[in-house]
Amino acid sequence: MKLIYTVVIMLIVVFVITFSLENTAPIPLKYYGFVNVIAKSYLVIFISFFAGIIIAGLMDVVVRFRLARTVKRLNKKIVEMEKKLSESENLPMAVETEP
Q1: Fewer CB atoms inside 10 Å of the end CB: C or N, the chain?
Q2: Can you state the percent helix, strand and coil of the chain, rounding each to 5?
Q3: How far, in Å, CA of 53 to CA of 36, rounded?
Q4: How far is the CA of 69 from the CAs of 14, 61, 63, 72, 87, in angstroms?
Q5: How far from 34 is each of 27, 31, 40, CA to CA, in Å?
């Protein structure tokens, strides 16, 4: 398994290196006079990619917190319902007598 992991990592590194060597054209980045930068195209692509990963990760954290809160609420409800069930089982049953 460790060998497969190493091979996959090596392939990704080779892809990143060859992609960077092929995409070296300068790209001007401007934003209403606040930003005026010239960057390599591969750098812009990688920064955009990693920014997307970070944003998606943050959104996943929010979803996980919501799910954890829902699970906690539902578990509390289960405990309450089990408690009510056990209380109702302990009640004396009314026995019907035949006339």
Answers
A1: C
A2: 70, 10, 15
A3: 25
A4: 43, 12, 10, 5, 27
A5: 16, 6, 19
Residue type for 40, please? K
Report whether 53 contacts 63 (CB < 8 A): no
φ/ψ of 24, rounded to 5, equals -110, 10
Q: Which residues pair with 35 in a beta bridge?
A: 31
Cα–Cα dist 51/35, whole Å: 18
Whose tokens are 């035949």? That residue is 98
Q: How far apart are CA 69 and CA 73, in angstroms?
A: 6
Cut 0.70: pTM above it:
no
